Structures are given as C-alpha cells and as structure tokens.
C-alpha cells in the first residue's frame, strides 16, 4: 500500500493540456512550453464523487489514495497524456457502513479489484484554458471509454493544478446496485495538482 | 352494503385478512433473512423489497381498519364462550393495530437511519421519510421497536391461528370457516350464497 505514488512513466496525460493549448496559439507557445513536461499527481489533490438519489441529496465520497502522472506536450497539446490510479479501499463517505458497502462486492469489490485506472487516449482543447480528455476507465476488471473535462486552475513554477469533472455511468462496470434509487451516474469533481518531475 | 353484519366475514374482509396475513408472514421471513445474506448488493435489494412490501401491508392494513370500522364484524360465533369472545376480540384488535404499527415502526426506522436511503416502493413510488430527526440513537431505537413489534405480532398471530385451528380441528365449529369460506361451511345459514355443493 505504500507504493501509491508508483508513477507510470508511460504517456499519462491530464486535463492540463487543454488549458495550455488555450494559451498557446501558434504565435505564442510560451505558456504551453512553460507548462510542458512531466508531472506527478501529488497528494494535495482531491478526488471527490457524488451520486444523486431519488428525492434529492445523495452519496458523497472521496478517494484518499491515488497515484498518477501526466505529460504535457509543449508542441502539440493533443499529444499530451495522463494516467491515474485510484485505490477504492481508501474511499471515504459519511459513515463506516457506507464505506464498507462501497468496498464490498456490491460496488468496488476491492478484494478482487484493488485499483481503478484511467488512461487517456486523446486530449483535445475545448476552450481558453480547458481540455477534454478521452480515455479508458477500468474498474472491476471492465474497461470502458470515459471522458473528463479539465480546466487549468493554476500554473506556477514546478506545479500545475487542474479542476477535472466527468460523469461516469456505473452500470457498465457492474456497479449498478441501488438503481434507480441512486442514480446510475457518478459525478466526479477533482482537483489534480501536479508536481514537475 | 353491510354484508359483514352476517354470520361470516364478507368477501372484502376475507381477502384483506388473508392477503395481509400472507404478506406479513413473508415479510417476517424476509426481515429475518435479509440481514444475514452474504452479498451486500443482494442485501440492499432485499431490504428495498422489504420496505416495498411493508408499505403495501401498511396500505392494506389501513384499508382493512377502515373497512372493519365501516362494515363491522359478523355476529360472534355462538360456539364461543364469553371468555373466548373477549380474548379473541382483544387478540384480533391487537393484530389489527399491529399490521399498522409494525410497518409504521419500519417507516420510522428508514426515516431515522443516518444512511438516509430513500424509499422507492416497488421501484416506482417515492415515499417520503417521516418527519423524524435521523440519528444513530433514533435509528437503533426504531430498529429495536420494529423487531420487537414484529416478533410480538408473530406470537399473537400464532395464538390467533392456533385458536382458529383448535376450533376447526378439535371443536369442529365454524369459527375458521367464517374467515375461510373455502372450507365447507358446517352451517348453511352462515352462507351468503348457496352453491351446488351445498345442496348436494
């Protein structure tokens, strides 16, 4: 459990790219080239999620353990990449009963599937400082396409921060317990802070 | 429409009685077993079914209570002694109350649970929580109350059924047949309709 920050050297990308691309019109590649490089997702990040429930409200939780890295390509934002691994055993929720339920074979099945991974397959700039990241999310041994949007929050020296959101259907992963009382959609709300490697 | 002012219970009363009785027995078994299954997903689903059937019972029980108050009861069977009549009436009144109280306590349990799991009866009808404040203490209290009432009801029902069977099998009177017309009635006077088999 101590290898949470086992960095994957392979092209791992983040939402970062999008924002960079925004500042990097061909004329001025300064921001992009300034941000270019490899980053490790550090533990000041936050990975929160929520699932709406019938009648309002819902489940809110977060993952305390994760690791990942991204690479921002200074020449071509689309060549940037990100990978991230979540350790669902570290899930936090309102109370222990809920956490145990989430860890059980009803949801994450952490005994058999201790990791949830996302690997980007395409990064596309969608705004001034925003990017859309397509990739493959693997959970409970099932790999499905997933999409996240990333917005640059901060870029300073050796660190960079993105706000990343995405909505993932849980039924394709065999996690549809509780529907329709609980929504099939898991909304991710993450702040990913990268430290230059 | 006061058919129930007769020797036997009317069709509506009979249907409600047996429907609620069967549902309650099923609910009791489900309630006991649902927290013991291994899979958490199955457990969650079973609890939701338990809640759904609980609300069905509550609705039917309220209907039955209204029907009981409106349509009244048949005349007591002459087979009963005054003590038997009194004890039967008390047990029956308690059972009527229990069919409302047990689901209500379950509703209170769902409403005070800190998990705040909504009730979507039969995956169709969103049932609001009772206006109770969720807390660990309140949830524990209502869990105990729900279980206690359920066990008390089962014991009452056993006494009730035991008495009815005693009348039917040992005393061979019409007490059970008044609530279960499918049993061949021993007194044609008690029948609202006459069938060929009765004439035979």
Automatic annotation (TrEMBL), chain B:
This is Cytochrome b. InterPro entries: Cyt_b561_bac/Ni-Hgenase, Cytochrome_b561_oxidase, Di-haem_cyt_TM. Keywords: Cell membrane, Electron transport, Heme, Iron, Membrane, Metal-binding, Transmembrane, Transmembrane helix, Transport. GO terms for molecular function: electron transfer activity; heme binding; metal ion binding. It is a multi-pass membrane protein. It comes from the Bacteria. Belongs to the cytochrome b561 family. Pfam families: Ni_hydr_CYTB. Its main location: membrane. It is found in: Cell membrane. The chain crosses the membrane at residues 12-34, 46-67, 88-109, 145-165.
